[in-house]
Amino acid sequence: MNQDWIIRLLGFFFVLFGVSIRLGYWRNLYWASKGGIYGYIPMGLLFVLYSYYEDIITNLAGYHLLFYVAFGFLMLSAILLTIKKPRWIKPAWVIWIEKYPQRVRKAMLEDVKNNPEWERNTLDEQAVDHWARKLTRK
Question: CA–CA separation, 15 vs 64, rounded Å?
Answer without folding.
Answer: 24
